[in-house]
Amino acid sequence: MLIFSIAVFFILQVGSGLLYKYGALHQEYWLAGFIGGNILGISSIYFLMQVYKYINPNVAEAICRGGFFVLIQLAFVLFFHSRLNLVQWSGICLIVAGIMIVSFCNTSIKI
Q1: Which residues, 6 or more positions from 10, have their beta carbon under 8 angstroms from its beta carbon?
Q2: 20 to 30 A Cα–Cα from 91, which one of 63, 64, 74, 111?
Q3: Contacts (Cβ under 8 Å, ≥6 apart) of 43
C-alpha cells in the first residue's frame, strides 16, 4: 500500500502541475487548468496521508515532495520542452541523492 500511495500521489501531483502550466499557456483553458489542477492536487493529499501511516512524516515529505519536484521538472521537459541547464540538472541529481539518503537511512519504513 505504501508504494501504491506514493505512486498515486506522484501521478496526481504531476497531473496537477501539468494542468496549471497548460492553463497558463493557453488563456482559453485557464479556468479548466485551474479547476482540474486543484482537484488533482487536493485529491493527492489523501494519498500523502496514507503514506504518513507507514513512515515518519519527515521521511514521507522528503520522498513525496522531493520526488514530486524531480518528476514535475522532468514532465515539463518532456511535455513543454523546457530546457534545464547543467546546474539545474545537477540540482535534480542532488535532490534524488537526498531522497535516497533520507529514505535508506530510515529504519521505520513498513512496506
Answers
A1: 64, 67, 68, 71
A2: 111
A3: 12
